[in-house]
Amino acid sequence: MLFMSTDRYAARRDNLLHRLAKDGPGDLLVTNPTNVRYLTGFSGDDSFLLLGRSGTILISDARFTTQIAEECPGLETHIRPPGTFMHEATAEVLKQARPAAVAFESNHLTHHGWTQIAEASKAIEFVPKAGLVEESRQIKDAGEVAEIREAVRQAERGVAAMRAGLTGEMTELQAAAELEYAMRKFGGRKPSFDPIVAVGARAALPHARPGEARISEGELVLVDWGSTNAGGYRSDLTRVWGTARISAELEKVHGVVLAAQRRAIAEIRPGIDCREVDAVARKEIERAGYGEQFGHGLGHGIGLDVHEGPRLGPSSKDVLKAGMVVTVEPGVYLPG
Amino acid sequence: MLFMSTDRYAARRDNLLHRLAKDGPGDLLVTNPTNVRYLTGFSGDDSFLLLGRSGTILISDARFTTQIAEECPGLETHIRPPGTFMHEATAEVLKQARPAAVAFESNHLTHHGWTQIAEASKAIEFVPKAGLVEESRQIKDAGEVAEIREAVRQAERGVAAMRAGLTGEMTELQAAAELEYAMRKFGGRKPSFDPIVAVGARAALPHARPGEARISEGELVLVDWGSTNAGGYRSDLTRVWGTARISAELEKVHGVVLAAQRRAIAEIRPGIDCREVDAVARKEIERAGYGEQFGHGLGHGIGLDVHEGPRLGPSSKDVLKAGMVVTVEPGVYLPG
């Protein structure tokens, strides 16, 4: 596990408060557990963070007292007593902090959760804000980049171990089990998403789930997988392996996809529009006559979530900045 | 995998429509993917179900076309074109169905999602409804009970295999990895939640996460784990094993907890208040002088989610009915 100083979390909170002060209420109720983790280091769930001019306070319950003390020494906490609901505890904390208005994460809090909290704190105005912390999370610092690299390494070592033990008799499900097990041996805490192992025609589906097909049943195996490291950072990789003699067309398509990926990666730099990076890869694939078979965006940001901003796609309005980490995953899906 | 006829899903939808007609608008927009699965058999995500007098329609995208055809033959679908957002596709479908009002799952849809959908369909009234499908899901049919039994069996066989290979040198994390791997060998698709393996003093935390502690470092190991079967049904079990000579007090506590569990199970029958079942176990533990050390509810419903209704606890208002499946998990947590 990499060391993350508590100062780093305080700096993230300061940065966010600075952005909040310029734009809307000065206080923010963070309900998304991934955002709570990003801002405090606390890796549990069922806990909210109130962040504001009058201070920072984590609203949690007694199950997490020990973990909070270990993961966020010095952070002020409000431990709700048994029998008290979260919205009641939040109202209690807001009564102490007394902001006139508080922003909330409208892309995470449910309609029901919002109604409950707003009704328990009628004197306060609740202002919907979508994606504020997620926007900060797009820019990674050196420690975060190292964590993502670690998650990539776990995934790469895991898949190499799985591949080394692969036989034609194994099913997609068995191969997926071997992959998950191997990633854990190399320090992964869990897959970053349910891994895809797809044989033959199923490899042409952008979203296949492993089943009982045997590795030897097709000429290709597709693996789409990733690892989550101890710090919660994720990786997302794809490989296609030939398990028989590959047809000339498949070999050609492989070259086209590889060229598209290399060109896109060469284009990546601070200041470039994400849709331009997508366009470079897309043009390469279109020129080869496979434009129709590349039906999704080129890639996406990655970090504590496997899919986060920015988005590399034809309609993306994002601009790349220093510190962003993105996947570059062009594909040509030939039916069958 | 157990066979579930498509008629079963149609019957669930009819049942829900019947309940809807009595109480509120006749149409319901289902956004929670677990509820979509319960009502259609579709196991993917990013898809909404509109259920109403004018018919049933699944709103999804092209990634899932093959999977929907396999899992829900005959179900009407609206596949949103690339570049169309979910709320736009939902508005499109609502424009065809033309209900005056539609209920939505306010305990799942985010404030932001609700705003987007409501703004794209201004002529329609959106009525918040929390937990409507979840209420139906509390009562399991024979097929669902069989699926849960299968998930229990996968968990039991997995933990037996892990235990058979356990050594004092293994860490909590290694034991958790062996457990997950073994459950997959017995047909499990993934853990039903991140398994807890906790040694010594950490076994006294209701929410420990596996770490680098070695099995031999304490006199006890606690394992709290479960499996998810191919149908998505889950199990949730806990075991405490002695790894050294157990103290007389621990042996006594074990007897108290076992007696509390047995008494509670004996009490379970259709018509009984859930808080009464909890009270029977709680009284047993209080009589032995450990009431303070049993700080959580007695149990919970289980099915497609690892935690669902009804709730067995001191403040529960639920009543047990035939077909409900609940965990019974009293505990005494002695600090250290």
Largest sheet of chain A: 6 strands, mixed
What form of chain A results from the Cα inertia axes? elongated
- Strand content range of chain A: 15-25%
List how many beta strands of chain A DSSP finds: 13
Oligomer: homodimer
Write the H/E string of chain A, N to C: HEHEEHEHEHEHHHEEEEEHHEE
Write a short abstract of this structure.
2 copies of one chain form a homodimer. With 336 residues, chain A is of the alpha/beta class.
Task: Please describe the structure with a list of short key phrases separated by commas or semicolons.
homodimer; 336 residues; alpha/beta; six-stranded mixed beta sheet; three-stranded antiparallel beta sheet; 10 helices; 13 strands; 39% helix
3D architecture notes:
The structure is a homodimer of 336-residue chains. The first copy, chain A, is an alpha/beta fold and 336 residues long. Chain A has ten helices and 13 strands. In chain A, the strands form four sheets. A six-stranded mixed sheet of chain A has the order 4-3-2-1-5-6, with helices on both faces. Chain A has a three-stranded antiparallel sheet with strand order 8-9-11. In chain A, helix 5 (111-120) links the parallel strand 5 (101-105) and strand 6 (125-129). In chain A, helix 9 (248-267) runs antiparallel to helix 10 (274-287). The first copy, chain A, is elongated.
Summarize the SSE layout with pairings.
The structure is a homodimer of 336-residue chains.
Chain A: H1 6-22, E1 28-30, H2 33-40, E2 48-52, E3 55-61, H3 65-71, E4 77-80, H4 86-97, E5 101-105, H5 111-120, E6 125-129, H6 132-137, H7 142-164, H8 172-185, E7 190-191, E8 196-199, E9 220-225, E10 227-228, E11 237-242, H9 248-267, H10 274-287, E12 299-301, E13 308-312
